[in-house]
Amino acid sequence: MAASSHRIMLGPLVAAIDQGTSSTRFLVFNSKTSELLSHHQVEIKQSFPKEGWVEEDPKEILQSVYECMERTCEKLTQLNIDISNIKAIGVTNQRETTIVWDKETGEPLYNAIVWLDLRTQSTVEHLINKTPGRNKNHLKHKTGLPISTYFSAVKLRWLMDNVDEVREAVVSHRAMFGTVDSWLIWCLTGGKSGGVHCTDVTNASRTMLFNIHTMDWDPELCKYFGIPMEVLPRVRSSSEIYGLMKSGALSGIPISGCLGDQSAALVGQMCFQDGQAKNTYGTGCFLLRNTGSKPVMSDHGLLTTVAYKLGRDKPACYALEGSVAIAGAVVRWLQDNLGIIGSSEELEKLAASVGTSYGCYFVPAFSGLYAPYWEPSARGIICGLTQFTNKSHLAFAALEAVCFQTREIMDAMNQDSGIPLTQLQVDGGMTSNRLLMQLQADILCIPVVKPSMPETTALGAAMAAGAAEGVSVWSLNPEDLSEVTSEKFEPQINTEESEFRYARWKKAVQKSMNWETTEPVCNGNGETSIFSSVPLGFYIMGSMLICAYTIMHICNKTFKSM
């Protein structure tokens, strides 16, 4: 009997490409039950060519998508699931990351500049200095965003100013700009042979070139940054057919959903009502609260962003967002840079072995501080060290740092909305760390609710794709949405202890401020030197020696105890 006759018929399936900062995944869901049937994941290499620079290879990103698709289809076939039942594909992606490519050759003209990248700090300072009153919120009335290194416009401006290939392509009308979603959709729908150059409203709203009221590119904003509008993708809704897959086993299937990763998680968590919120723990940490059909401007350092627009004729919904740059990235730093852990699982074990940071506080401001401070001059610090401190205490402090940062943005959100959250819905890779989830409940003093199916970001993209007009295999009507099972973490410490630890954290944050400056100190030969001041030089040398001695002592003590 032919193998095909044994294939399991599950009804319509919908797939999602989830292209994140550290990995790419392809996942396939049952549109009737939201069940995850199969997936594959590939890690993405990040490069750090200079201090503060973060890049990725656009071709590696694209290849990882093809690999994940191929491997997932193989797994489905092994499960006797017919891949011809995949009716649509959604895309969700790391936002703000900026790519420019040549539309004639299809080749990227430079590496992707990742959202965390800080190379544009001097550009940002120049832009702020020329605004009335040196106001970083000068464009907020149109964009919902402060002028910051975080967003795409300044990254694109840097590429035009510093990369000859980009400048020449812009002049000769060959350049295409896009965030990762635009690059992938263009390539997957044909590339230089008729690929569709588009983005959705959620990704567009993270560029500083998009007017969140008119829901389109803004000529005045483009002029402000000196960006020619012809390089920009067409802005579409988050749920419509953009084009068809042009190659591989899934050729001919429509790509019909597109959401920036945090918006996708909001949809996947089914936060469709005004006031519902979710927090995603990935490379960074992002708390979004649905504010309905009207944009709400924050007075407490949050962003106003487009949450989703689920159809060409559907209204846009907005969200308040608190963005934290470093969450899961601190785990990678402890693993790759310090070498004190071998895996994320080891971090949880280390932290659990002591159950306290013993007064050690870790502010991981590697890329400055995002919400609610928007302070690019901040840098990471570890303080409160004693001779008793060891790597287990540092591991605990790293987990607490993620929770404290979430507390800061939740406090800001409660102040802006006037209605405090009574529980927090969470998702993302770090939510598998049960100690982190309990710490989060303790520090927020409210329950933390984790869905049993953690892939909410990919699920949101799949829901948008399956619900698109012309596909219509996934109903977003509230009565049709699947019941979500979850686990709840209740606070286990008293409020006084939580507030004491939080106050110490806030003190540590202040110590991290105003650390970096773009104004270099020069010696007599015109060369930059930190030792151009003799007292400063002695102070720095002395501090370095003391720090080195302390770290050696901690390591020796730790290894002796092992």
Number of strands: 23
Within CATH, the superfamily of one domain carries the name: ATPase, nucleotide binding domain
The number of helical runs is: 16
Structural classification? alpha+beta
Pathway: Polyol metabolism; glycerol degradation via glycerol kinase pathway; sn-glycerol 3-phosphate from glycerol: step 1/1
Family: Belongs to the FGGY kinase family.
GO molecular function: ATP binding; glycerol kinase activity
EC number: 2.7.1.30
Itemize the secondary structure elements and their pairings:
Layout: E1 13-19, E2 23-30, E3 36-43, E4 55-56, H1 58-78, E5 86-93, E6 99-102, E7 112-113, H2 121-129, H3 140-143, H4 152-162, H5 164-171, E8 175-178, H6 180-188, E9 198-200, H7 201-204, E10 210-211, E11 216-217, H8 219-225, E12 234-236, E13 239-244, E14 254-260, H9 261-268, E15 277-281, E16 285-292, E17 303-308, E18 317-324, H10 328-338, H11 344-354, E19 361-363, E20 381-383, H12 391-417, E21 424-427, H13 434-444, E22 448-451, H14 456-467, E23 486-489, H15 495-512, H16 534-561
Parallel strand pairs: 1-5, 5-14, 9-12, 15-21, 21-22
Antiparallel strand pairs: 1-2, 2-3, 4-7, 6-8, 10-11, 13-14, 15-16, 16-18, 17-18, 19-20, 22-23
Helix pairs in contact: 4-5, 9-14, 11-12, 12-13
GO molecular function, one term: ATP binding
Domain Carbohydrate kinase FGGY C-terminal: 278-468
Domain Carbohydrate kinase FGGY N-terminal: 14-268
